[in-house]
Write a structure and sequence with these properties.
Layout (H helix, E strand, L loop, with lengths): L2 H22 L3 H26 L3 H38 L2
Helix pairs in contact: 1-2, 2-3
């Protein structure tokens, strides 16, 4: 077992522990943060797999995965911020 394979196993275990925050997060923001951490670790695993297998096509997959993850987290956080402020505006409009 090579050094990179050991590092990949450690990062996989860390992603599993971070997945706990994704599943059991207290609120939406903690779950979103858990998703972001897991996505980062998966991207690192793609890079390590590219180095282990000498197939650098996985680097392209990692780049696309990181970009899609960034867009998804940005869109979800924008949605969560908008829904939170809309609730406050509605409550403010209902007051006399």
């Amino acid at each position: 077992m090579t050094f990179l394979e050991i590092i990949a196993i450690i990062i996989t275990l860390a992603a599993a522990v971070s997945g706990f925050a994704l599943i059991r997060g207290d609120n939406r923001w903690n779950r979103l943060l858990g998703y972001n951490v897991v996505a980062g670790k998966v991207a690192i695993l793609f890079v390590l797999w590219a180095a282990i297998s000498d197939n650098y096509f996985y680097l392209d997959i990692a780049i696309v995965y990181v970009l899609l993850s960034f867009i998804g987290v940005t869109a979800l956080s924008d949605y969560l911020v908008d829904t939170g402020t809309r609730k406050k505006e509605v409550l403010a409009d209902e007051l006399p």
